[in-house]
Amino acid sequence: MDDELNSRLKPLRERIDAIDAQLIALLNQRAAVALEVGEVKKHFNAPVFRPEREQQVIARLQSMSEGPLAAEHISAIWREIMAASRSLEKSIKTAFLGPVGTYSEQAMHEYFGQSIEGLPCPSIDEVFRAVEAGAAEFGVVPVENSTEGAVSRTLDLFLQTQLVIGGELALPIHHNLLTLSGNLTGVKRICAHAQALAQCQHWLTANAPHLERQAVSSNAEAARIAAEDPTVAAIAGDRAAAHYGLQVAYALIQDDPHNRTRFVMIGKEPAAPSGYDQTSLIVSVKNEPGAMFRLLEPLARHGVSMTRFESRPARSGTWAYYFYIDLEGHRDDAPVAAALAELEQKAAFLKILGSYPRSR
């Protein structure tokens, strides 16, 4: 049996080895050209990372592929190839909500690739501050969850910052209940970020109603606490479990099996059009009849689709609101540009947060 198996596998493995030899030669050729690109960018003081260019490369390769690799496989492979090439040009630092093991860190690596230097921050506020101060070139922040809705602190900080959104990623969120022992023996409380507790509340009520629930700054912080205290269970993902040496007591405990969190990448450089873009903005209107209709009417007239509409109190004590809106298209696209020009005339306040490649 083993002899027959090996005899049939041997020629296939030899073919794979030959293909791998070709691939490594081509990858090194590609890296050498990327270094030349880096020299040109350096001469013109151009940014190393261009999200719209990377999106175009991936989309083109996906359209060329005839299988068996799926589109998401091509995306994952080429993000790592481009990330490795970028790291040859310059080491890029990205701030994320820490500590190590958070979903924010996972989103950072899925978007920028593994060849990125992460800067864990204790709060979303600190992520913004790190990028504004130049301690990191980019930041990764959550903006909304499919179960719990908008991340209010991120929306509030967008009002105060000069940073722009340069990209987005919708990350599937898989919550596990983690302990040192791999079971709940001796466990007295469950720690997690407040949103994670909310996303798992029905499961927790049905399966662990006797355990105290404690909100902490992040799921990774909960995992760190659980790693030091056998009476604590943490809600966190696989990355946190591996980093802190925890065992999965119960897997996939989120109430919504399709639970996802949308993250955006913030920085100082605006993204150019990629052909598949989105524009985010904040507006407010005068408190008078028909004001909101008059504000949004130009979008319909210019054929611009609105994909998100979120309201937040202005905290001015006058019952005024800011509206967070996502539009299909880039601000440089003619229909979007025309609609935004009219919005600016009609809005009491308008701030464009960025135009950037949409998550596919």
UniProtKB/TrEMBL annotation:
Provide the alphabetized UniProt keywords.
Amino-acid biosynthesis, Aromatic amino acid biosynthesis, Cytoplasm, Isomerase, Lyase, Multifunctional enzyme, Phenylalanine biosynthesis
Segments forming domain Chorismate mutase = 3-93
Q: Where in the cell is it found?
A: Cytoplasm
Protein EC: 4.2.1.51, 5.4.99.5
Q: Which Pfam families match?
A: ACT, CM_2, PDT
**Chain ranges of the ACT domain:** 280-357
Is Lyase there in the keyword field? yes
Question: Which stretches make up the Prephenate dehydratase domain?
Answer: 93-268
Q: Which GO terms describe its molecular function?
A: prephenate dehydratase activity
The entry's protein name is Bifunctional chorismate mutase/prephenate dehydratase
Q: Which organism is it from?
A: Paraburkholderia kururiensis
